[in-house]
Amino acid sequence: MSTNPGSRIACVTVGLPATGKTLISQKVCRYLQWLGITTKVFNVGNYRRKLHGAHQLHDFFDPANPDGERSRREAAVEALKDMIYWFKKEQGVVALYDATNSTRSRRDMLLAECKKHDIQVMFIESVCEDESLVLHNIMSVKLSSPDYKDMDPEQAVEDFKARIVHYREAYETITEENLTYIKLINVGSQVIINHIQGYLQSRIVYYLMNLHIAPRSIFFSRHGESLYNVMGKLGGDSDLSARGKQYAKSLPLLIATHLGNSDQLTVWTSTMKRTIATAEHLKYPKLAWKALDELDAGVCDGMTYEEIEEQYPEDFANRDEDKFNYRYRGGESYRDVVLRLEPVIMELERQRNILIIGHQAILRCIYAYFMNHSHEKLPYIKIPLHTVIQLTPRAYACEEKRFKVDIEAVDTHRPKPKAGAAAKATVEPAVETPVEATVSDTSKQPLADASNDIGAKITTTTMSTTTFRDSAF
Ligand code: ATP
Ligand code: F6P
């Protein structure tokens, strides 16, 4: 994605504690990084803890406490300095300056500094009038914060509520007409935008307008094994193998079992025969997206990896060198695919339960968005055949479960060859856990109640992501 050369944007969050500012910052960062835009979050709360320690009680945040006020300002200035340095030294494009920034004077200070360095400022204000949601936010993310480590949970809730009261005393919502801002009221049920300029700011606004926090799951499955998979051929539009058809039959029960109490689901496929056939037995609304078609291998479509290595040795080596950026002759690169999937991601953010029946490269790209994988790792993510992946968004990250159906299928994953080794020679061991995560529980448990019509066993693997984060001030 191209941006104006030299355009640098500081997205500055505004709002009371526990109104989703950090979640918003992290999501915008992940989205832009996925699109290839150099983006970073500067969380002032982390600076505050580093400079002044983690165990500050609510009176530290009292606007009538001059020591607290000075210390908080110090943390804000440190984060600001680092942000400006990052823009210059790392050619940063978008920074998320994550703090409460709830007074005019604090925002004026940020505006003045950013102006000096030719950085545009876009405010993202979150207003949440729903007391029960704020309480839920406190319980779900604040109690696990280092601020309240080893504190009795009830006491921690009371302290955090008192912190909010202090902020409310000094809080000034944004009203200045000359400022660039988006105001999200009650999780986007009302959105006010002002003075939004340029492509990148519009993208961020559009993205923010599509976010919701209602519980839901996103399921991924590759199509059942295809005839081309069996022959080791890339691309094409072949039918399912007998085992692939069996897998398609096993899907309805597997999905119903893991949808929980809901029967609300929409199935998205590509326009290719193998994904549509895999969805055949699922009795949910379906939508076929052209944007979900497999990465186009151009002149190599229909060839095996061995044939490509023989006929296009240079291309083959170049792909191993930089798989994300390598574009097949007359075809696509992973980078191209990420850009064509952007509308899919936007729509996914809007939706509730979705099952995507897709292809290896496509699902790698979508999975990398949710699980925050780098472009370098993305083309090697393992998305095996005959496996359903369930992602459930939690406070700051997604929980992952994998259900492997016991119907054999070929392995189409080609690992990255070791540096310097001939492409065919020794390969790196497969990356076992394709998430930068802690495997919290890995259990092999054939689903006792999953006696579906083909008698397939299912192996469940649970993984969970961990992200450190904390309150903004
Ligand atoms: P602090 O100022 O203490 O850093 P914060 O405003 O950064 O707090 P978060 O830590 O991001 O708040 O709170 C995360 C919680 O907020 C999550 O449980 C998430 O579901 C919820 N949330 C996300 N977006 C919103 C929103 N727009 N309004 C209210 N809550 C939201
Ligand atoms: O082999 C199955 C397949 O979906 C091909 O159609 C596609 O070219 C390939 O996977 C993508 O995987 P990789 O980028 O690792 O070659």
From TrEMBL:
The keyword Hydrolase applies. Its EC number is 3.1.3.46. GO terms for cellular component: cytosol. GO terms for molecular function: 6-phosphofructo-2-kinase activity; ATP binding; fructose-2,6-bisphosphate 2-phosphatase activity. It comes from the Eukaryota. GO terms for biological process: fructose 2,6-bisphosphate metabolic process; fructose metabolic process. Keywords: ATP-binding, Hydrolase, Nucleotide-binding. In the C-terminal section; belongs to the phosphoglycerate mutase family. This is fructose-2,6-bisphosphate 2-phosphatase. The chain holds residues 1 to 473 of 682 of the full protein.
